[in-house]
Amino acid sequence: MSFKQALIATGILAALALPALALDATKGPHGEAATPAASVTLTPEQEAKVKDGKFTAAMSWHTTSDWSAAVSNGAKDEFTRLGIAVVAETDAGFDAARQKNDVETILAKKPSVIVSLPVDPDTAAEVYRPALAAGTKLMFVDNAPKGFQQGTDYVAISSADLVQMGAKAGEAMAQALGGKGKIGYIFHDAAFYVTNQRDQSFKATIEAKPDMKIVAEQGLADPARAEDIGNAFVAQNPDLDAIYVTWAEPAELVLAALRNAGNKHTKIVTLDLSEPLALDMVKGGNVAAIVADEAYGIGVTAARAAALGLIGEKVAPFLAVNAIAITKDTVKEGWNASLHRDPPASLGAN
What we know:
12 helices, 7-stranded parallel sheet, alpha/beta, 6-stranded mixed sheet, Rossmann fold, 40% helix, 20% strand
């Protein structure tokens, strides 16, 4: 999921004061400790109980994208393996009112559980309350409705290890620069738990390296301003070795700034998959690495946790999949690990 999309999906519309974060471990949207997704498993006895239950599932997504498609495919494949029939899947197009209608339509099929990414967590309680009234279990991806209680109103949240993503971006940059260099840091200037933890983990990783120094730093509230920031960074620091950009869409604009300046020296490291950035990377351009989450694994984890919830088993509140650092030599492996499919043909990695 692009983070321009995620901002809409979480109702973040303006820059806010950033919270101080502990960077030793990822926290969920309500401060939940992260539990490794790999630890969520079912015993043979539990799987048999799920299959005997003849349960059904539905999915209500915020939008359609490569990322959400991978999450959906992971969930559907795991539901199929567990004998849970998927009876409906919807796409709200980032419209909270539409998602409410989607859920109401889904409920006509009487699913045992709904897996969903809320368009707007601040108002989503009204979206999902009819499901609770109908006795349908809820399992969320990335966020949960404000006021809902885990274990009572929903099974769990399946997401990514955000601190790991930022740390891997920092390590990938250090490797690209041989452990020494001047860094530009473009962070997300809004209170959004996903980007905040990723950004601050990257910064902490770089600051722990004595021969790497952040010499230019700028918050980004409007992704459209990324090219202007990139232009300013390289104009004021012509010897800048690399720039970290908070997610892929603004990173594409920073890449455009470097190309327009004829700058082939300054590297870019960012988060979330992007075909244009990956194409630049495989061609030996400015992009040194892209860090992504295991999107397909988020879906698999959501389905497993939902299945456990259906048979009355307790599940940890926030389940986090691993991060993948992708370089030009690992595009095929990284794409498959993240999205469970080969990269686009344009990348020549098939």
